[in-house]
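User: Structure tokens for this complex, please. No commentary.
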Amino acid sequence: MPCGLFHTAYQTDERIYKSIWVKAWLVAFGLFLLLLPLFVRDYVLYISNMIYIFVVGAIGLNILTGFTGQISIGHGAFMAVGAYASAILTTKLGLPFWISLPCAGFFAAFTGMIFGIPSLRIKGLYLAIATLAAQFIIEYTIIHWERLTNGITGMSVPSPSLFGFVFDTDKKFYYLLLGFAALAVITGRNLFRTRVGRAFIAIRDRDISAELIGVDIFKYKLLAFGISSFYAGVAGSLWGHYTNVITPEHFTIVLSIDYLAMIIVGGLGSILGTVLGVIFMILIPEFLTTVAVLLKSTFGEITTLISAIKGLVFGLTIVLFLLFEPDGLSEIWRRTRDYWNLWPFSYR
Amino acid sequence: MPENIAFLAQLVLTGIVLGSVYSLVALGFVLIYKSTSILNFAQGELLMFGAYVCLTFIVGFQVPYIWAFLLTLAFSFILGVMVERVMLRPMIGKPIISIIMLTIALSVVLRSLMQIFWGTETKVFPPTFSDVPIRFLGLFIAEIHLFSLIFAVACVILFVRFFKFSSAGLAMRVTAFDQQIAQTLGINIKRIFALSWAISAIVSSIGGIILGNINGINNSLAAMGLKVFPCIILGGLDSVVGAIVGGFFIGVLENLAGGYLDPVFGGGVKDVAPFVFLVIMLMIKPYGLFGKVHIERL
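Assistant:
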């Protein structure tokens, strides 16, 4: 906390903008993001768009895993439910994107709550296994319900449009996705200033104590699964409409593990950390691809090797974070900020 | 024998063969869980590691089968100890999610390393068994399947006896029962942790060698590690007997589901049926058939 900031009431302590500077920096950062498409190449826009989509999904997972303490290894599958629901609603029923998107969210939330039911009786390791099963069952259903989902060939998804304005380029989509990512961050941040959010945190910290002080554990656990999967579903829908094609291969267990890696590296139970984690985990493979392209001239073709190396770096990143920085990037950020707050003085 | 009964019996027989390997891997899994309370998501990679190392000795260095097998066990032992020492010991006392994530990351690291060393194409062991199936009560069983079954069952019996009667096995059981009691009795529980990982790696690598001989080795072998979850949930996470029973049961269930439901659902039921069963099991009897029921009291 910066020095010279004294809270005398609970209200001020709960404020998001703790000081005028926080607000100023956020506005500046927002302006930067708004103006970004004017200066950069399409490739950078593509990366930013992927980051925005995954920010939505990862905040969902962090609500469930980081804030409520329920481990999920099936988040990728819930994203798939959203993506396919949206694709089916727009292509088969001809609904506009703006209706199919919330529907996708609700479909995913419903599916998530079904697989959250075992959380009434089991927790920890057992729940992790149950969600793992959810991943496989949903994946199987999507692949084999061919009449609805076209099986492994995948579905093509139309670009969304608003009053004749079609979001079909990276630049147009950028603003749409920026809006959704901002919405996800704002709702995610504010959720934990409400009664529901506090109940989630109580369940995470000690479920029995939470029950004793009157938190209906089953209701709130299911709600956490629902809200989390809603975010995943929206992210899935956005992804489908952005890339225009979805196949079951996009939503394997690898995606679920990617999500877990993002929130672990970013920091469990931190919205800022989630954003940082997503940026970090999306940029690393891109960075490696760039390096591979540069090395191509000296070492020749190494594409087969590079995919293995990507996996290795991915795994080692998680291991190193878990061993040396378990609170993730958000903790690093906090330390750095605190250091510069009082620089050049070393004591607070 | 009528045709439909023969079909059923054939499915059950193949299921039992597969189940014997599941039992073996599940045993390694339960072992780690019992003594260290870690759910190891990298079990499939340990399995794959064993298969690849054995193959390398046999094909690459022309080592005779039995020596290659023993060398593989030694390598798996080293891998198990190293993994425990470097990665999991610093995690003692950390939250469950971190430990789960660590073993998932470990599986990614191991898989990538194996991909770097051995590539992605399917590799096969040199054929050691004849292709002619053995007739047995009107059913057919491939020679390699029969051998696998006998071998896996022998290994399971060997390891169960090890836990029951050897002093190291006794120490492991004490550690699993209560770590503090184990420490007061003078058991070095850090060594027990390392030993558990080593033995688990060994058991898995035996399973890997068997499966590698049947189907060849590629990345999909690692998926076997995840198939073990239904087995251990059925048997109970912390029960050795449960792991063995669960392994056989899931093996048979998987084959029956594949045989009878594939035409209805259009293929691939084999891979998903154990997980459907797993969810049902978790809802009605989460601690399995033989698992210790966990009751929280204030």
